[in-house]
Amino acid sequence: MIEHFSELRGFLDRHLDDVTEAVREAAAAEVMPRFRQLADDDIDQKSGPHDLVTSADRLAEVRLTEALTALLPGSVVVGEEAVHADPGVYGALESDAPVWIVDPVDGTRQFVHGDPGFCTLVALVRGGETLASWTYAPALGELATAVRGEGATLDGAPLAAGAPADGAPLTVATSHPDFTTPAQKEALLGLRAPGVAPRPCGSAGLEYLAVARGTCDATAFSWEAAWDHAAGLLLVTEAGGAHLTRDRLPFRYRGGNALPFTAARDRATAERVVKLLGG
């Protein structure tokens, strides 16, 4: 990881703000003009009624793909919509090239229903390590960034997840039932314990931001799509949090994780959630 980071350190020093601007521009050009303005033919289903895609998702991903690869020649993009069109694109995560992991509209269901709780997620990854991330919620006017080893910020102010308050109910954002197997549903039942307050998750990216800023204590997610997790996991980690799968290993966005997994405000909370999940 150190070698991969050092190779890209200069790029991040020179272009961190350029990537931020590319994220903002994609949202301004393709996402926000369609917010609460979608026509019926702008919306499609993918795997079911809770898995939606819009013209904003597709066009923002195209714009981000062009901008990010221009900033970093030789890099490739693994985007949610590109992978949906060609699952083989996901294999780029196994290469040694710098990879941009992109979710153009995370929380598409919220976006479609006119809820401002959606965001654009970008992470820069190489050799299996996330080196930098951007979480932009344009309708909320919030931008969080993280650089490995250098901390996380929200609108320029440092983020610190802290630890849950002693004696307070542990708030845990959990996967939607449509995206869980029977075994995962059974594991999630472990969160129905005294002193724990599970609730359905919204946008994964914004749930990670909530953990990083200390307004949610943990997540318990049961799916592995890299575009939903890469940016947020780095954000939580750089804010002082931790993430663990049910076998107490860090989450691997290439797959093969013991699910559900958690990201939490601190290591002790992550251990507690994993134990409740039966890990």
From TrEMBL:
From which source organism is this entry?
A: Streptomyces gougerotii
Per the UniProt entry, the Enzyme Commission number(s) are: 3.1.3.25
Single GO MF descriptor: metal ion binding
Question: So which cofactors does this thing need?
Answer: Mg(2+)
Q: Which Pfam families match?
A: Inositol_P
Q: Which UniProt keywords apply?
A: Hydrolase, Magnesium, Metal-binding
Enzyme class, spelled out: hydrolase
PANTHER family to which the protein is assigned, alphabetical: INOSITOL MONOPHOSPHATASE, INOSITOL-1-MONOPHOSPHATASE-RELATED
Name it.
Answer: inositol-phosphate phosphatase
Q: Extract one GO BP annotation from the record.
A: signal transduction
What this protein catalyses is: a myo-inositol phosphate + H2O = myo-inositol + phosphate
